[in-house]
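Support reply, case 0932

Customer input (verbatim):
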Amino acid sequence: MKVKMDIQRGTIIVMDRRRGKLRAGQGLLQGLQVIWDHWIGSFRKNDNFSKIRGNFTVEYPDQRLPMPQAYRNMPVLLYDDETGHELCTGCYQCSRACPPQVIHITQSKDPITGKMVPASAEFIIEYDACMSCGFCAEVCPFDAIKMDHVYELSTDDRMSLMVRKEQLNRPISYYVGIAPDLWAEVQASAMKKLQGNIKRRPDVIGLAPHLTEKIAARRRELAEAAAAAPPALTTAAAAPAAPAGKLTPEEKAAKLAAKKAAKAGGAPAPAAAAPAAPAAPLDEKAAKLAAIKAANAAKTAAAEAP
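Our regenerated output:
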């Protein structure tokens, strides 16, 4: 039943909840029923967070709740497991997008030319001021920075929260373990960009710091093994030499040009245009140059003739 009452402040509607009058002690019994339901439900283990009944408590730290793939705590850097190269290029996009400005980067330089190289020489994140917004991971064009799932970071040493590249680096396989679907979405483009950046990195620049010495030693071993190994026999057959007394097409063209020039000048063709000893075929530029020289020689001979 709805009852309308007009008062000075406006119109209000009173809803009839269809609750009968409670007799003595019925309210107490209803309250005890609610307590009883909650107490019985606490013995049922509930792993589905969409439900509102059950025991959601786990024995932390022995038991841990599974983390969603998109969970974000603190940013980390990725490097390739196979090559050891970091995905970061030091482009400063994450540093510019960071609201509290806690990311500090120094880009690498080629030690010989002094030009910038697509790699970071220094990368520092102030974990103590990071707000875990994830902007750095969103704007990174190379998918080099991702949000980690580790949240146990409490410490009494504030300076330890100034995390450098050595502590930030994680292999791609680590991120695949915590967010496989998210990495599958960007894997193709990220690896393609990485291969392009590796070609522009000289020597060990761009390698994860803890792998630099290991990979450099491996390269030295391979170089020493290649130097000690006997030279491989070439299976490709050598190009057949031109038969004796037979001119190549380039030599024929040069000889013909010399004859035409001599005929136009009224002088006999120079002896230099005679067939020479068989030589290796000339390329197109050399043939043109020989023809020009022969024509000039013919003109000179014609001019000097009485």
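We compared this against your earlier run and they match. Two observations from our side: The first strand starts at residue 3 and ends at 7. The chain has a mean pLDDT of 82. Please reopen the case if you see a mismatch on your end.
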